[in-house]
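Researcher: Quick test of sequence recovery. C-alpha cells follow.
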C-alpha cells in the first residue's frame, strides 16, 4: 500500500534524511521517500506488518510527526505553525534590538556588569521563547544519535550564551587579572536565532509558490453541487455526493464529480452541451457532450445545462487522481537527491568536528589569550554550515518543475523520469491514435476509394513538435501497422525520416531494444495495449491521455491532450529543471566551501584581520536557503 503523508517539524535536509532513515528501518516499510519542500513522505508499506500509528510513534521519538488522523488537517497545522513562526520572528527582532542597544552602548549604565546582566536576561528570554523549538528538537535528535540544523543552532547559541554568562560573573577575575580583553556575546546568541527564524519565515513564504500548481488543481473542484431529488433541485456539499446520484450542472458551473450525461441542452442544440475541458486535457475548443458521454470533475459547460449520473466521486475522480499523481511525483526523489541525502546525514557531525578543530587551532596558536577568539570562530563555523541550501537544491527545483508540467497537461509520475527525459536522443512513436487521429466519419462501405488523408488526420502541431525534437538532437522513429505506402505517406506528412510499416507489438519492442544497444537513450510514445511492451522497455515511457488505461499505468509520463507540442515542452522542461538543480547544488556547495574557512578565520593567516562573525554567519545561512528557493521559482516563469 502506498500513501502520501504530511510530515510536521522538518527544517533541513538532515531532518528529511533522518525521517526517511527512521521509516525505512521499520519492519513492514518497503520504501519511504521524504520531500522537504512539500513536507510529506511517500510510504510504500505492508499494512499487515505495520500500521500508520506505529510509523507515527517511531517518527515522534526523533522529534517529528506524521499527520494520519482523519480530522487533522496538515494545511491548518502548517498555517498555525507559520503564524507562530511569524510571531516568534517579530519578538526575536525586538529582543535583538534590545540586546544591541545594551551591548553597543546605545543605553548608558552605571557599570559594565549591569549592562551584561540585562543583556543576559534579554538573551535568555529570546532562547526560552523564540528558540525553544531548536533546543527541544536538538535534544530529541541527540537521544537518538542524530543531528540536524537545530543541533548546529542549539550548539552555537548555547556556547555563545554560556561563555557570555561566565564572562559576566567571572570575566574580570579570570581574564582581566591577566590583562586579557574580554567581552560577552549575548548579542551573537540572539542574532543567530533571529536570523535563522527570519530565514525560515522567508523560506516558508517562498516555498508557498512551489505548491501553487497543486492548489490550482485542488481549486478546480467545486465545494457544492446541485442534486436532483424528484422535482426538486437543491444545493448540497460535494462531500455528500454518492455514486448513482443525479446531478444538475448549469452554465459556468464546475462539474462536481466524474459521471455520465443523462440529458443535455444548449442554445446551439437541443440534445447536447459544449464543455470546456482545457483544464484537464489542454484542448482549447469545447467538447461536445451528448447523452451517454463521460464528463469530468472541474470541467465547465460553456452554455446550456446538463444532468448527469455520478460515477466516480471523492478520491476516485480523475482530477483527484491527477493531484495524487503530482503529489507523489513531487515527493519522489531524483537519483542525485539520494547522494545529497547521504551527505546530509554526515554533514552536521563533520561540521561539528570542523568547529572543534577551529577552536583547537586558535587555542594552540594563541594560547589562553585567544580562547575568546577561538570560541567565536567555532560558533561562526557551526552557524554558517547549516545544510539547508544543499537539501533544498534538488527537491525544490523538482517540485516546481513537476508542478509546471502539470499546468501544461504533462503528468510526470516520478522525479527520475523528469531527470532522465533530458537525456533522450531517440524517440519511437506509434502512429494511429498517437501521431494521428482516425476520422470518425469514415464511410467504410467505400473504404477502397478513400488517396489516405480521408482516413485519419495528424494531431495538432504534430509536425512542428517533431521538427523541434529532431532539431534538438532527437531522432524520431515512427512505428505503424499500416502497409508501406500508408506508413510512408504519414511519415512524410509528419516530417519523420525513419519509419517502419506492418509492425507487431514485438516489433516495437525490438526497435526500442535495438536503439538501446546502439547506445541511445530511448523514449517511447504510445496509446494502446499493443504499445505496452515497448513502453515497459523504454528508458522513458510516454502515454497519450486519451489512450488505454494499460498504457497510462505503465508509462512514466502522460500527455493529457491531443496536442503533441507538449512533447518538446516536456523535454525542454526536463532540461531546464535539471540545469536548475545543478545550479542550486553548485551554489550550495560553493557557499560552504567559501564561507566555512572565512568563518573559521583563515584570512588571519594572510594578515587580513577579518572574518565572518556569528551574527553575519546566521544572516548568510538564511540568505543561502532563500536564494535556492527563489532560483527554483524562476521555472514558473518559463515560456
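Model:
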Amino acid at each position: 500500500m502506498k500513501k502520501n503523508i504530511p510530515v510536521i517539524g522538518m527544517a533541513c535536509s538532515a531532518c528529511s534524511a533522518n525521517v526517511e532513515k527512521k521509516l525505512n528501518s521499520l519492519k513492514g516499510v518497503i520504501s519511504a521517500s521524504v520531500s522537504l519542500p512539500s513536507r510529506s513522505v511517500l510510504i510504500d508499506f505492508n499494512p499487515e506488518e505495520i500500521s500508520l500509528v506505529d510509523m507515527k510513534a517511531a517518527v515522534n521519538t526523533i522529534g517529528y510527526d506524521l499527520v494520519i488522523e482523519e480530522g487533522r488537517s496538515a494545511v491548518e497545522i502548517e498555517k498555525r505553525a507559520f503564524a507562530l513562526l511569524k510571531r516568534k520572528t517579530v519578538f526575536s527582532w525586538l529582543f535583538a534590538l534590545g540586546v544591541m542597544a545594551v551591548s553597543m552602548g546605545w543605553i548608558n549604565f552605571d557599570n559594565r556588569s549591569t549592562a551584561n546582566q540585562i543583556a543576559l536576561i534579554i538573551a535568555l528570554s529570546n532562547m526560552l521563547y523564540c528558540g525553544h523549538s531548536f533546543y527541544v528538537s536538538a535534544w530529541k535528535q541527540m537521544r537518538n544519535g542524530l543531528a540536524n540544523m537545530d543541533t548546529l543552532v542549539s550548539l552555537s547559541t548555547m556556547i555563545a550564551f554560556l561563555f557570555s554568562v561566565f564572562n559576566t560573573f567571572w570575566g574580570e577575575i579570570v581574564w582581566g587579572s591577566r590583562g586579557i580583553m574580554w567581552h560577552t556575546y549575548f548579542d551573537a546568541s540572539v542574532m543567530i536565532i533571529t536570523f535563522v527564524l527570519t530565514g525560515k519565515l522567508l523560506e516558508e513564504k517562498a516555498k508557498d509558490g512551489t505548491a501553487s500548481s497543486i492548489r490550482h488543481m485542488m481549486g478546480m473542484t467545486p465545494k457544492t453541487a446541485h442534486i436532483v431529488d424528484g422535482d426538486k433541485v437543491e444545493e448540497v456539499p460535494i462531500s455528500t455526493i454518492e455514486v448513482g446520484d443525479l446531478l444538475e450542472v448549469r452554465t459556468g458551473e464546475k462539474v462536481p464529480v466524474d459521471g455520465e450525461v443523462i440529458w443535455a441542452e444548449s442554445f446551439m442544440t437541443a440534445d447536447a452541451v459544449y464543455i470546456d475541458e482545457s483544464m484537464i486535457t489542454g484542448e482549447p475548443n469545447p467538447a461536445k457532450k451528448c447523452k451517454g458521454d463521460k464528463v469530468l470533475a472541474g470541467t465547465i459547460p460553456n452554455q446550456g445545462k446538463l444532468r448527469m449520473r455520478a460515477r466516480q466521486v471523492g478520491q476516485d475522480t480523475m482530477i483527484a487522481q491527477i493531484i495524487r499523481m503530482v503529489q507523489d511525483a513531487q515527493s519522489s526523489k531524483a537519483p542525485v537527491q539520494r547522494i545529497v541525502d547521504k551527505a546530509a546525514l554526515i554533514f552536521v557531525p563533520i561540521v561539528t568536528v570542523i568547529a572543534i578543530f577551529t577552536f583547537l587551532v586558535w587555542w594552540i596558536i594563541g594560547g589562553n589569550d585567544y580562547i575568546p577568539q577561538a570560541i567565536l570562530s567555532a560558533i561562526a563555523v557551526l552557524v554558517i554550515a547549516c545544510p539547508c541550501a544543499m537539501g533544498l537544491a534538488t527537491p525544490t527545483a523538482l517540485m516546481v518543475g513537476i508542478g509546471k508540467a502539470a499546468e501544461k497537461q504533462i503528468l510526470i509520475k516520478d522525479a527520475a523520469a523528469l531527470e532522465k527525459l533530458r537525456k533522450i536522443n531517440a524517440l519511437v512513436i506509434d502512429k494511429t491514435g498517437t501521431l494521428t487521429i482516425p476520422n470518425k466519419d469514415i464511410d467504410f462501405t467505400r473504404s477502397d476509394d478513400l488517396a489516405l488523408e480521408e482516413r485519419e488526420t495528424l494531431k495538432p502541431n504534430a509536425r512542428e513538435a517533431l521538427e523541434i525534437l529532431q532539431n534538438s538532437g532527437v531522432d524520431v522513429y515512427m512505428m505503424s501497422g499500416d502497409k508501406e505506402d500508408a506508413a510512408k505517406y504519414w511519415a512524410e506528412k509528419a516530417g519523420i525520416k525513419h519509419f517502419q510499416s506492418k509492425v507487431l507489438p514485438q516489433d516495437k519492442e525490438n526497435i526500442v531494444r535495438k536503439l538501446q544497444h546502439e547506445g541511445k537513450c530511448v523514449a517511447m510514445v504510445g496509446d494502446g495495449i499493443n504499445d505496452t511492451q515497448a513502453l515497459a522497455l523504454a528508458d522513458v515511457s510516454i502515454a497519450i491521455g486519451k489512450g488505454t488505461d494499460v498504457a497510462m499505468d505503465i508509462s512514466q509520463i502522460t500527455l493529457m491532450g491531443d496536442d503533441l507540442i507538449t512533447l518538446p515542452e516536456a523535454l525542454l522542461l526536463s532540461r531546464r529543471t535539471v540545469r536548475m538543480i545543478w545550479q542550486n547544488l553548485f551554489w550550495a556547495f560553493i557557499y560552504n566551501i567559501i564561507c566555512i574557512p572565512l568563518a573559521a578565520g583563515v584570512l588571519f593567516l594572510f594578515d587580513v584581520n577579518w572574518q565572518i562573525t556569528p551574527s553575519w554567519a546566521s544572516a548568510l545561512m538564511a540568505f543561502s536557503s532563500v536564494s535556492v528557493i527563489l532560483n527554483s521559482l524562476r521555472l514558473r516563469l518559463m515560456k
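The chain has a mean pLDDT of 84.
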